[in-house]
Amino acid sequence: MASTQSTIRIAPTGPGHPKRVKSELMRQRLRAAGWFLVPMLVALAIVAGWPLLRTIYFSFTNASLTNLYGAELIGFKNYLNWTVLKSGRIVWSGLLADPVWWNAVWNTVRFSVLSVTLETILGTIVALVLNAEFKGRGIVRAAILIPWAIPTIVSARMWGWMLNDQFGIINDVLMTFGLIDHKIAWTASADTAMIAVLIVDVWKTTPFMALLILAGLQMIPRDIYEAAAIDGVHPVKTFWKVTLPLVRPALMVAVIFRLLDAMRIFDLIYVLTPNSSQTKTISVLARENLIDFDKFAYGSAQSTMLFLIIALMTILYIWLGKVRFDGGDR
Amino acid sequence: MLWRYTKTAAFYLLVAVIVLVSVFPFYYAILTSFKSGTALFEINYLPHHFSLDNYVSVLTTGVFVRNLGNSILVATSVVVLALFLAVTAAFALARVSFRGRGLLLMTILAVSMFPQIAVLAGLFELVRGFGLFNTPFALIFSYTIFTLPFTVWVLTTFMRDLPMEIEEAAIVDGASPWVIITKVFMPLMWPALVTTGLLAFIAAWNEFLFALTFTSSNETRTVPVAIALLSGASQYEIPWGRIMAASVIVTVPLVGLVLIFQRKIVQGLTAGGVKG
């Protein structure tokens, strides 16, 4: 926990230096810092802040793709609205009453929880392997970087081909080993579409998880393990009682990072399982409404909802991330 | 004794499975890309056919070369822009203490966690308003949202770890902050700049949602969109051979770069926590 915060304590400490010199220097640095920050802040405001505000604004209007500027404010009607029929029956509308929306929410949550859980378990195993000393460790480390380096679209296409029902190698392998008795249309059939998406996502992002966990593992001093070995503690017990508690901060950060990332998934699902209601997540649904269905305002409302969900989780992350941030070293 | 051998064997079996699962899909894509005609529909585990037909077809028909050019242009411009803005900002955030610095850093980190879809509507309006729709500038502009926070964040953590002494000497000599950045820090920062730049480049190279939404013609698309939309003569005829060839073309340089800069990339990744 040595302080890596090297802020300015520049003041020469000799007796002949009055305090005024230091504060003048400090003021000069502060002014420079201000000017250095302005371009970046302006860029972020234009490219992130303003568009976000506009999206939220559009969610309260009846805007359409062809009529962005003539849109009128309609309040919360995109979120929830009701009309009372003559018969006295109340008809609800808006996204909170839309089963398609809730299906997308369910898909997003299901995908995020399952993928992150699998990635954490597998990532921990890979990280433990990489943390051991053995011949060929470099090769393994290089090999697991390959899935990470491959563009998501390319991995979606590659796996789409491997999971092809007629000519796919996955069906061939499974048939050869007698694990299945008929060819499965992995990406097309409703039962397996989510499994297909999970397979590809886990394959692609486990390396990232493993590297983050490995960084945490490598900070654990080796002598703790030596002490445990001398005391004759079983390695499995060492893992649960020593390794896991010590690596938990790194693990938590990795999990939250991945969770936030999984919540906004778009590209993999758009390419691997287009038009499957079993895998349509909030991002996919929102873009469909924004661009394809010309329900710009409605899509904006869905985007805003996703933003709110993720914002809540980000606050959680920052709260937890603070530990790492002030801890300084990694 | 036997127990120890079993344990070692099990360990290496696990290692073999990890390597096989990691590498096989890419290997199989390469294998497929060299098949043409009906050979495509035979399942081979080892190289069996060798034909460059798919590569020739991808590179000569259609506009794939143009798409490659677009991707290179967009990714390079975005990286240069982001690094330029980030270096000075990182200096201010890492080496000068001022009120609200922690909050500012957290805000920047929060922006990198933004779901892209949340800004899509607003960006769409901006891109159309500026007349950038269906041009590479739309992408260079919009990609700043994820490259800039990331580069600022990683460069800040890097600069914070540099020792005080190097800066003190320059300050005593009366160097201005600008001179300190360009003359003192820049030479030390090359490794960090290369790593961050490379990671930002990969992120921009792989981006899909903005590229899909802000371009509309074949000529202005970037590579991921081109590969996603590559289709055959009919809806039911997916040109798998050509898709694999195109995939291999865009992935080989990336995999090469990543393997060369392995160590640096792992450091950068764990500092910035970014997904490619």
TrEMBL record, chain A:
The keyword Transport appears for this protein: yes
GO CC terms in record: plasma membrane
Superkingdom of the source species: Bacteria
Gene3D superfamilies, A to Z: MetI-like
The entry's keywords: Cell membrane, Membrane, Transmembrane, Transmembrane helix, Transport
A biological process from GO: transmembrane transport
Family from the record: Belongs to the binding-protein-dependent transport system permease family.
Subcellular compartments: Cell membrane
InterPro entries noted in UniProt: MetI-like, MetI-like_sf
Source organism of the structure: Pleomorphomonas carboxyditropha
Official protein name in the record: Sugar ABC transporter permease
Transmembrane segments annotated in the record for this chain: 32-53, 111-130, 142-162, 193-217, 238-260, 296-320
Domain named ABC transmembrane type-1: residues: 105-317
Statement: the UniProt record of this protein carries the keyword Lipoprotein: no
UniProt topology in membrane: Multi-pass membrane protein
Automatic annotation (TrEMBL), chain B:
InterPro entries hit by this protein: BP-dep_ABC_trans_perm, MetI-like, MetI-like_sf
Any one Gene Ontology BP term: transmembrane transport
Keyword presence, Zinc: no
Main location (coarse class): membrane
Pfam families, per the entry: BPD_transp_1 (PF00528)
Alphabetized UniProt keyword annotations: Cell membrane, Membrane, Transmembrane, Transmembrane helix, Transport
Topology class, membrane: Multi-pass membrane protein
Keyword Membrane assigned: yes
Domain of life: Bacteria
Compartments it resides in: Cell membrane
GO annotations of cellular component type: plasma membrane
PROSITE patterns: ABC_TM1
Transmembrane segments: 9-30, 72-94, 103-124, 136-155, 184-205, 240-261
Residue span, ABC transmembrane type-1 domain: 68-261
Similarity field: Belongs to the binding-protein-dependent transport system permease family.
Protein name: Sugar ABC transporter permease
Organism from which the protein derives: Pleomorphomonas carboxyditropha
